[in-house]
Design a protein that fits this description.
- This protein is an alpha+beta fold.
- Helices cover 27% and strands 20% of the residues.
- The chain has eight helices and 14 strands.
- It has helices at 24-27, 31-47, 60-74, 78-82, 141-168, 177-180, 250-255, 314-324; strands spanning 2-6, 11-15, 20-22, 50-54, 94-96, 113-118, 186-192, 205-208, 214-218, 225-228, 234-236, 244-248, 265-267, 279-286.
- The chain has an eight-stranded mixed β-sheet with strand order 3-4-12-9-14-7-6-5. A four-stranded antiparallel β-sheet has the order 8-13-10-11, with no helix packed on it.
- A hairpin with a 4-residue loop joins strand 1 and strand 2.
- The radius of gyration is 19 Å and the shape is globular.
- The termini are far apart.
- 39% of the residues are buried.
């Protein structure tokens, strides 16, 4: 895949690991623009599982503010941060300390700590009873406030992308709407601290696939994200300015009987000379409501593509996966 960047004096051809789409073409484009976007996004999710998105509608001001608040939080002492780690929440709200989460196929913990913000139900929906309250930081109340604002912006953009995927699957652009309204989505700030000694056999985030429907990731403060292509090669993902990275999660792969790909990815350690460099990233894991049925769509099952999964709800599947990655006992 290639991206052409032009200026007055030269044209530069830059190789990309993942395709690039413009969400503006879907939100405000004409019929032809929208149809082209649907096809481009669907093809990217079918063939690659990852896509870069520009004109995504997530205000840079909100991103910058939350990055700043996250840096301040993770710079606090371990004693202060651990006040906001609540074991019974299984890492789904508040702080999770360094070395707690691991990839499902690994028992070696990732080199990271994180803080999570969940859904806030404001319309009297009964699903509110399923969600614990977010964990406010007494020393830094702005952290949660800015995170909740960014959460809403991610929801809006994510729902546009799911509407397009609904069209691509011939389900209609409203297929996911009720299923994700007040869904169990998570905004996570991940901090990978400087590496101070030879890692025991861990990288910043071991190879894995995400649990949810789709993940939206704003640019990290340092490189390291890699995706595994169909040839078994690890490719560096380097977003351009103003681009977010979006990938298929296991729930969407399961729903489509592997037609849309939940691609393996990881965050590798920097070269030794850059071990002192920390990394901060902000993914938004877009989840449906717990009652959503993830049974494979009939349209995705055929003689050539036999049924791969038994029916399960999103809530039950999430519980299974949280146990696999060490966050839930």
């Amino acid at each position: 895949m290639w991206l052409f960047l032009a200026n007055q004096t030269q044209t530069i051809m830059v190789s990309r690991a993942i395709p690039l789409v413009d969400l503006e073409n879907y939100i405000h484009g004409n019929t032809i623009d929208r149809a082209q976007f649907v096809e481009e996004l669907g093809r990217a999710f079918h063939e690659v599982g990852f896509v870069g998105v520009i004109n995504h509608g997530i205000p840079q001001q909100l991103v910058d503010q939350f990055y700043s608040e996250a840096k301040t939080f993770f710079a606090m002492t371990e004693a202060v941060k651990r006040k906001y780690e609540i074991p019974e929440l299984a890492g789904q709200r508040g702080y999770t300390s360094f070395g707690k989460e691991h990839a499902k196929q690994s028992q070696v913990a990732d080199l990271k700590e994180f803080y999570q913000i969940g859904q806030i139900v404001r319309d009297g929906d009964q699903v509110k009873s399923e969600y614990p309250d977010n964990v406010a930081i007494a020393e830094q109340p702005e952290f949660l406030f800015s995170g909740e604002e960014l959460y809403r912006a991610f929801e809006v953009s994510g729902n546009h992308l799911l509407a397009a995927i609904g069209e691509f699957l011939d389900l209609g652009n409203d297929y996911f709407r009720a299923k994700t309204h007040n869904g169990n989505s998570i905004l996570r700030a991940i901090y990978y601290p400087p590496i101070t000694s030879e890692p025991a056999s861990a990288i910043r985030a071991e190879q894995h696939e995400d649990i949810n429907l789709i993940t939206l990731l704003v640019g990290a403060s340092a490189g390291g994200l890699q995706v595994l292509d169909l040839k078994g090669q690890w490719l560096d993902v380097v977003p351009q300015e103003g681009e977010i990275v979006v990938n298929v999660g296991d729930m969407l792969q399961r729903l489509t009987n592997n037609y849309l790909r939940s691609t393996t990815h990881r965050v590798v350690n920097p070269p030794r000379e850059l071990w002192h460099t920390p990394r901060l990233s902000i993914p938004f894991f877009l989840h449906p409501r717990s009652e959503m049925n993830l049974a494979c769509l009939d349209s995705c099952v055929s003689g050539a593509s036999p049924l791969q999964y038994e029916p399960i709800t999103a809530g039950a599947y999430l519980n299974e996966r949280l146990k696999e990655i060490g966050l839930k006992k």
